[in-house]
Write a structure and sequence with these properties.
By secondary structure, the protein is of the alpha/beta class. About 45% of the residues lie in helices and about 20% in strands. The protein has helices at about 1-10, 35-50, 70-75, 90-95, 105-115, 135-145, 165-170, 180-195, 215-220, 245-255, 270-280, 290-295, 295-310, 335-340; strands at about 20-25, 50-60, 80-90, 120-125, 150-155, 200, 205, 235, 240-245, 260-265, 285, 315-320, 320-325. Strand 1, helix 2 (about 35-50) and strand 2 (about 50-60) form a beta-alpha-beta unit.
Length: about 350
């Protein structure tokens, strides 16, 4: 697999000939199970085939149970300079319900060690868990803050089909996640983190100054990106492509010098809708000047018309020709965005 990843990097170098790589991200599962030598080998391949910025953000996604003290020290000596750790919760009962591989002790131990060797760390936290009181959620946030973490990504619990969680709900052992509970937790999260100096720069992301995720910000700002490996997605500003998800098919195709990907060329309407969705989720908002320039007055007029009811209800605002959600409208961002979409 590692050799196939390296070969795909070479096969796709022409796609980014005029670009500078600002961020390298090992994600999409548990890349932390790779040997340090494999990670360094792949980073070297990126440097050999692309122009890389002087100080790129190089992130590794990891679960707490993969991050022993020895492993963290090894990683700190590599080019990786940012960790994204899937904590999810500091409470044992939550982790068991979500069928996580790690326990609360491992969550605390890994952060205690990681913060000694890395200053750029992001953790994931889940809110809206059935039975989680506001007080318990505050304690979860406080636990993260006590480690001095500079970036937190936080998401509402979603129930995927055919999971342990969905079966527990179907059998009545736990309640369905409540929108009211999720909204209360979201507002507590925003208020608590903003008081501690975090910037709520994207709907699910909070960072101290200079600690925004460069990788994720590229998605939200519509920058080009290249995804390497099974299921990886790429975007060049006009089209999106994605690799096959089957590992064996992926490796066999790469060995035959074939790129195992499907391509979708985005229409003007697709690009407009994506910009509305991503723009509204961020502090940068949706530029009305950009809407007019890229999509034309027809789309701009439509956006004004659709947005007006939300402006009247203080859910959206326009300042300096930029459309943004208000504090009141932030939790409802995705629903508001869907009402602003252009539907053919």
């Amino acid at each position: 697999m590692v050799l196939a990843l390296a070969k795909e990097i070479k096969l796709r170098k022409s796609e980014f000939e005029t670009e500078t790589i600002e961020t390298i991200y090992f994600g999409g599962g548990t890349p932390s199970i790779l040997q340090i030598s494999d990670l360094i080998f792949l980073i070297d391949e990126v440097y050999k085939n692309f122009t890389v910025a002087e100080n790129p953000e190089i992130t590794l996604e990891a679960n707490p149970d993969d991050l022993s003290r020895e492993r963290i020290i090894e990683l700190s000596k590599s080019p990786i300079n940012r960790l994204s750790i899937g904590i999810q919760s500091f409470f044992e009962d939550d982790l068991k319900m979500m069928n996580r591989a790690h326990n609360s002790e491992e969550a605390n131990e890994c952060l205690e060690e990681a913060t000694k060797y890395f200053n750029n760390i992001s953790i994931d936290l889940i809110y809206g868990i059935p039975g989680m009181s506001n007080e318990k959620w505050k304690r979860n946030i406080d636990a993260a803050l006590n480690f001095g973490i500079p970036h937190i990504s936080s998401y509402a619990l979603t129930v995927e089909p055919k999971t342990v969680l969905s079966k527990l709900i179907q059998t009545g052992k736990i309640n369905n996640p409540s929108d009211e509970v999720a909204e209360a937790h979201f507002r507590i999260l925003v208020e608590t983190l903003e008081k501690k100096g975090f910037v709520h720069y994207e709907l699910s992301n909070f960072g101290k100054s200079s600690y925004f995720s460069k990788n994720n910000s590229a998605y939200w700002l519509g920058k080009k990106y290249l995804g390497i490996g099974p299921s990886a997605h790429s975007y060049d500003g006009i089209s999106r492509c994605w690799n096959v998800s089957n590992n064996a098919l992926y490796i066999n195709s790469i060995q035959e010098n074939k790129l195992p990907k499907e391509v979708e060329v985005l229409s003007k309407t697709d690009r407009y809708n994506e910009y509305i969705m991503t723009g509204l989720r961020t502090i940068w908002g949706v530029s009305l000047d950009r809407i007019e320039k890229e999509f034309g007055s027809k789309y701009l007029d439509y956006l004004h018309k659709q947005a007006q009811k939300f402006i009247n209800d203080d859910l959206l605002s326009i300042n300096e020709n930029v459309l943004k959600t208000t504090k009141k409208g932030k939790f409802l961002t995705d629903g508001i965005a869907s009402d602003l979409f252009w539907v053919n």
